[in-house]
Amino acid sequence: MLDVKKLLNDYKPINYKIWDRTGQGNNILSLFTPLEKDIWLKAYDFQDKRDDAGHVENVTCFAVKLIEYIPKANRNIVIPAAILHDTGWSQMTDTELKLFYISNWKDYEKPLRENHQKKSVEVADKILTQVKHPQEFRRDILEIISQHDTRDGFSSLEDGVVRDADKLWRYTLPHLELTLNKRNKTPEELREDVYGYFSKPKFFYSDISKEIGRIEFEHAMEIYKIRESKEDKKWE
Question: Is the pTM of this model over 0.85?
Answer without folding.
Answer: yes
